[in-house]
């Protein structure tokens, strides 16, 4: 199921399949239902994607002011692109690490997260289409799959970088985005981003939960391991301001991210 979603290129088709399989998984987990076995899969190194948007290096993606209507459309487009990547990231963690013995709750959590990302992508597409645009109408960032590639052999590295760094960053920036659309009177985008903001806390929490689970199983200090893995696999910067309240709600204490932000802001760091 995960590999089928990953190998579906069109965004709306990918998310429709994702939602259908998530519902099937959830139904199979009801008491008395026939369980779906966790199999083994050979997911592609790169998920299938539509021909559009054109993927550009971040420095080549045109910047638009969020104060303009065009800038707000570009912002929705950027979020849609992030959400589509997130759909693939959550199915990828399920398929790629199926050989690592994990409790069933691990699969429940990432299936639920994938289902929510699918909803988020569709919400962003609805907003884009209501504004006369659509996903694929402008270029998007290449390189969002880099974190998945870099951590393809390391489940703890994947958890550290994807939910606990990248998705946590979403908690920091989403309130500001909601404010932009509120000021512009774009109620549909405000409502959609409110849903995204509320649900993303859980994705970060799933990451923290399973990261701590694995540290406990191997008798490792979670904070030390987190710092080492982010240094090894994450190539961006951890930049304040942080949404400390939502990060705490998601099980991400300040001593996980502040030391990394401080060391990354030191001059001379390669
Ligand atoms: Fe999302
Ligand atoms: Fe998410």
UniProtKB/TrEMBL annotation:
Region described as Disordered: spans on this chain: 26-65
Species annotation: Pukyongiella litopenaei
InterPro entries: DUF455 (IPR007402), Ferritin-like_SF (IPR009078), UCP012318 (IPR011197)
UniProt cross-references to Pfam families, sorted A to Z: DUF455
Name of the molecule in the record: Ferritin-like domain-containing protein
